Amino acid sequence: MAVIDLIMQRMKNRSKGYFVLIDPEKRSVDLNRMVQNINRTYVDAILVGGSNKNISGFHSFIVRLKKMTDVPIVLFPGSHSQISKEADAILLLSLLNSRSLKHVIGEHIDAAETIVRSGIEVIPTAYIVMDKTGKTSVSRAAEVLKLKSEDDVKKYIYASSLMSYSVVYLEAGSGASQSISPSAVKIARRILDKPIIVGGGIKTPDKAKSLLKAGADIIVTGNAIEKNPDLILDFGALVKRF
Ligand code: 1GP
In 69-143, which ranges are E strands? Predict the structure, then answer.
């Protein structure tokens, strides 16, 4: 099944989805244990990407991961060099509230030919970073404009609804001290008839629950499960029974 069909199913059936993010550069992570847990529980896709522009061995990491699991592997690229034809799909992220043109469209232009030739499924994604601290690596690298009020949030959500993005990803930033607020997710849910993915700073199943309740279709965890891969089982169980 195409990954976008799986995501659409989650939204239409009002079931919920769970993505796990793996950064190939974090060598200290217990990858075997993470993947064992992913295979044992309810994970819809593994996102792979990192904030470092040039990750050495990116393609061979995807090849290795593919041998360990049947869960779809979806690129979540931090730059145009993080592309591999072995992946099942790519979230082609346009960071809408960036003042750095390359994060809105430039990296995409550099990656476009490789993506087309790879034949992998492309999921155009409106990527909105809601990081009030401005301290996460994405905020710094991409000159992210802070969304200070609900009206600011609404503007970006309305814009995402008008443009031809298949999904909307609301991001607090990887490693954020706090996730985005359930009230921001509620605003998005009221406006959007598109799947909503929420990630960044989700450290506990309770937090995930509040975001799913507010209207997120899919939650993403990275840092928390790198530190404790067994949390994958807790998040998976929560999302499955939601
Ligand atoms: C980052 O949304 C993902 O893009 C995951 O964030 O690492 O904070 O879980 P965390």
Answer: 73-75, 89-95, 121-129
CA separation for the pair 227, 6 (Å, rounded) = 28
Residue 183 has pLDDT above 90, yes or no: yes
* Average per-residue pLDDT for the chain: 95
Residue 168, classed as helix, strand or coil, is strand
pLDDT at 16: 97
Residue 42 in 3-state DSSP? coil
- 27: pLDDT strictly greater than 90: no
Which single residue is written with the structure tokens 């706090």?
178
What is the predicted pLDDT for the residue at 9? Answer: 94
CA distance 201 to 174: 6
CATH number, position 7: 3.20.20.390
Residue 135 has pLDDT above 80, yes or no: yes
Q: How far is the CA of 204 from the centre of ligand 1 (A)?
A: 13
Q: Which two tokens stand for residue 127?
A: 């990527």
175 lines ligand 1 (CB under 6 A): yes
At which residue do the structure tokens 């082609």 appear? 92
Reply yes or no on whether the pLDDT at 140 is more than 90: no
Q: According to the model, what pLDDT value does residue 134 have?
A: 83
Residue with tokens 């990954």: 3
Number of separate domains in the chain: 1
- Joined tokens for residue 238: 């929560």
**Cβ neighbours, 10 Å, residue 238:** 20
Q: Which atom of ligand 1 is nearest to the CA of 203?
A: 9
Q: Domain residues for 147?
A: 3-241
Residue 176, ligand 1, Cβ within 6 A: yes
- pLDDT average, residue stretch 139-156: 91
